[in-house]
Amino acid sequence: MNGSRSGERDGRVHGRAAPLIMEGPVTSLLVRIRLVLASASPARQKMLAAAGILAEVMVSGVDESTVESPNPETLSLTLARMKAHAVVGRMRGEAHTLVLGCDSVLALDGEILGKPTDADDAAARWQRMRGRSGVLHTGHCLINVETGKAAEGVAGTAVEFAEVTDEEIAAYVATGEPLRVAGAFTIDGLGGPFVERIEGDHGNVIGLSLPLLRHLLQELGIGITDLWNATPHNATAH
């Protein structure tokens, strides 16, 4: 399943942000745009840094357990929206500042799987997931703090899990990694060998779709290159 933008059905607000160019007497000066990530996820922050964007982190403090929905796209977007608005609410209309909220859930056989409650839950999930496929949905909510304009979308990526053994499941759960992430797996960590293939955006499985972020920025009148404030650590000197 390819990542997709969710359109009017998810209540996306369309609009243009205030101009981010300050006109000087002789030349135009590009104002640096500040991106605040409403998430404690180091994977999301690392992925942004690799794409040239050094994002600040401000944890939302949202209680995810209070939100329920039978639809994974609706749930992931609702949680992403709550995270973003919670952080924006602590700011005071700061200029040239964007807040990005993201949330991921795994849909397997019609059931929505967030983070496991404990080690036994994580092990039970992997026993169900092995050899099967699910869809990882990540909701994105991007807000211009100064104007209040927002752009939203959901990306979905199909994930095929390996036929892992009971011993591999026990060893993986014992590391604690599956307890900290939606769906009880990672693709960029110890869980990587247990994912046979994906269909869609690889980054979305990590927790943030860069192509979708680019589209959301465009809806706010901003180019993703305007956020480049770091040298990607995977760049090669020539």
Summarize the structure.
The chain is an alpha+beta fold and 238 residues long. It has 6 helices and 9 strands.
Written overview of the protein:
With 238 residues, the protein is α+β, with helices and mostly antiparallel strands. It has a single domain (7-20, 32-227), classed as Maf protein. Helices cover 26% and strands 24% of the residues. It is built from six helices and nine strands; from the N terminus they run E-E-E-H-E-H-E-E-H-E-E-H-E-H-H. Strands 3, 4, 5, 6, 7, 8 and 9 form a seven-stranded mixed sheet that branches. The radius of gyration is 19 Å and the shape is elongated. The model is unreliable at 1-29 and 232-238 (pLDDT under 50).
**CATH architecture descriptor:** Alpha-Beta Complex
Q: How many helical stretches?
A: 6
Mean pLDDT: 86
Low-confidence stretches: 1-29, 232-238
Alpha carbon gyration radius: 19 Å
Question: What's the arrangement of secondary structure elements?
Answer:
Blueprint: E1 21-23, E2 28-30, E3 34-37, H1 42-50, E4 56-57, H2 72-88, E5 97-108, E6 111-113, H3 119-129, E7 133-144, E8 150-161, H4 166-174, E9 195-199, H5 202-206, H6 210-219
Parallel strand pairs: 3-4, 3-5
Antiparallel strand pairs: 1-2, 5-6, 5-7, 7-8, 8-9
Helix pairs in contact: 3-4
Q: What characteristics describe this protein?
A:
Maf protein; disordered N terminus; seven-stranded mixed sheet; two-stranded antiparallel sheet; alpha+beta; single chain; 238 residues
